[in-house]
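Please, structure for the following, as tokens.
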Amino acid sequence: MLPTTLLFILTALAEIAGCYLPWLCLKRGGSPWLLLPAALCLALFAWLLTLHPSAAGRTYAAYGGVYIGVALLWLWIVEGIRPTGWDLLGGAVAISGMAIIMLAPRS
């Protein structure tokens, strides 16, 4: 379970960075050169998704919960905005959903 969770986290970081860099460029007046590493991050994100061992739909559903948790950490660490109690509650619900999907017995 640990390798899969770490892979989910790396996948989320690649996706968030790939979306955050264009946001910096378009919303904060960042350099257009930020679009190049953004494209590389999004390509890495797509490749990392192919490394997950489960069926694609199940992987994407479970990944969504991890993505939300990592996005809240990004909000706090990178953007300097402390998540609210509501943010944390929503993240806990999402992570719980991910755990149900990933830990469910399979035949």
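The chain has a mean pLDDT of 91. The two ends are 18 Å apart (CA to CA).
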